[in-house]
Fold this protein.
Amino acid sequence: MHHLTNSNCVNIAILTISDTRNFENDRSGQTIKSLLESKNHQIIDYKVVIDELPLIQTIIKDWVADSTIQTIILNGGTGFSPRDVTYEAITELLNKKMDGFGELFRMLSYEEIGPKALFSRAVAGNIGTTAIYALPGSTNAVKLAINKLILPTLPHFVEELVKK
């Protein structure tokens, strides 16, 4: 079970899902990493993988089993193209879904990009005591989600998941 020793510091794993990105050109994953580290959160693991549902789920399950990882943040694969499978990979595994996360993300995105925000299938929830977020792959979407939704609530979410 995860226990916070410092409620201001959360241990996080980042997974970028893309058929075209790698560590050198993964601007969104690097943005997530730098925004979280700037607030003293710890990045425990960071991977870039292709859009393959079984592969995504295997990594998620491995990270959930790792007691040092409290939160998993995914980016990419949340749209509607045939290769976008992140939403399916995550929602099949979630114990509880945080409906308001996707709703609020789309509302805030709408203010920036208009009706195209409807195409985002951003989702959050938990698997056991691990918080999970799945974000679109665009760098602007990642900045919006991290700054407006995740950073302000992340320690609280993690603390809620370990309450007895």
About this structure: The helical segments are 27-37, 53-65, 86-91, 99-113, 139-161.
